[in-house]
Amino acid sequence: MLDFEGMTELSKSFREKLRAAATVTETRIENVFYSSDGTRRYLLKLGDDKEVEAVFMPDERRDTICISSQVGCAVGCKFCMTAQLGIKRNMTAGEIVSQVIVVLNEVYGPAAELPHKTNLVFMGMGESFLNYQEVMNSIRLMADEKGLGISPKRMTVSTSGIVPRINDFARESVRPRIAISLSSAIDEIRDDLMPINRKYRLDELIEACREYPLSDRERLTFEYVMLDGVNDSDQDARRLVRLLNGIKAKVNLIPHNPAPELPFRASPVERILAFQKILIDGDVPAFIRRPRGQDISAACGQLAARH
Ligand code: SAH
Ligand code: SF4
């Protein structure tokens, strides 16, 4: 229903109020790509025909839905396909929420039970903390009992390190978990991989992490994309242990998901294992992320609204 006039169960005066204050747009599925591992990539069309992607990842225990927060991204990380789109526009809170509804409807049918037991990660296209208000509004809508009823504990917002917004996020009353994309513990290397580092440097970022309020069992998650010969040496691992010293942290090592347009290769498995061992020996819990949906360009960093 794209027109308030047709919502005849609402009073006429309320319909008029709605018409003056709001618009209805539709998020349509342009295409769905099915991976051999069960992952589904959704190419979605927003009301103005701009395209974003969402990813559904089934798991024995709990599904995960990965959603976008912007059309494209302005941050420009060298290892990420979304960066190559540049930034087109921010998504509205409604558009952000619509991704979850559209995906659940496609997977489970329109009668999908809500609240649905699913994990939600803001790890699709875009930098959530450069669209802070709309992302926070979408989180409140999705967490609300009358909305989707998804617990904020089941949501994770991933950021490339927008320090002032990390500080704001720390003070939110409805607050998901946070993940910070690090990918190097060395400023010169991070400057090159993630240009945002020239604005918010590692010492500022780590300072914000130190001050971040964590509950007893909570840890800050750091994501580290493993790039062959770039950031994966023993020395890099030791620098990471030193950087995270004193922070309740865990590290997710993400083997680089390649694309012909990207100038990197994934680190070999033995290198990733050696890197992980140095972290664990340094008392930093470290996990190797299994790539999902690589065959349909649905894995981390591969989202580029491809047909
Ligand atoms: N903009 C946010 C969230 C989207 S990216 C952020 O950068 O945190 C989600 C994760 O995918 C980030 O940790 C990012 O570092 C990682 N990533 C980006 N490109 C990748 C690639 N080609 N291979 C593996 N991981 C990648
Ligand atoms: Fe943007 Fe995240 Fe990709 Fe960097 S990794 S360009 S912040 S989507």
List keywords for this structure.
single chain; 307 residues; alpha/beta; TIM Barrel; 10-stranded mixed beta sheet; two-stranded antiparallel sheet; binds S-adenosyl-L-homocysteine
Polypeptide structure, described:
By secondary structure, this protein is an alpha/beta fold. It has one domain (26-296): Aldolase class I (TIM Barrel), CATH 3.20.20.70. Helices cover 28% and strands 21% of the residues. It has eight helices and twelve strands. The strands form two sheets. A ten-stranded mixed beta sheet has the order 1-2-3-4-7-8-9-10-11-12, with helices on one face. A two-stranded antiparallel sheet has the order 5-6. Helix 8 links the parallel strand 11 (249-255) and strand 12. It is globular and about 65 Å long. The model has no long low-confidence stretch (mean pLDDT 94).
CATH superfamily: Aldolase class I
**CATH C-level category:** Alpha Beta
Task: Count the domains.
Answer: 1
Write the H/E string, N to C.
Answer: HEEEEEEHEHEHEHHEHEHE
Looking at the overall shape, the CATH architecture is: Alpha-Beta Barrel
Q: Which structural class do the helices and strands define?
A: alpha/beta
The 3D shape can be described as: globular
The overall pLDDT, averaged over residues, is 94
Calculate Rg over CA atoms.
Answer: 20 Å
**Share of β-strand residues:** 15-25%
Helix content: 25-40%
Adjacency order of strands in the biggest sheet: 1-2-3-4-7-8-9-10-11-12
Q: Which runs of at least 5 residues are low in confidence (pLDDT < 50)?
A: none
CATH names the topology as TIM Barrel
Unique ligands: S-adenosyl-L-homocysteine, iron/sulfur cluster
| Count of individual beta strands | 12
Largest sheet: 10 strands, mixed
Q: Terminal Cα separation, in Å? A: 27 Å
Our count of helices gives 8
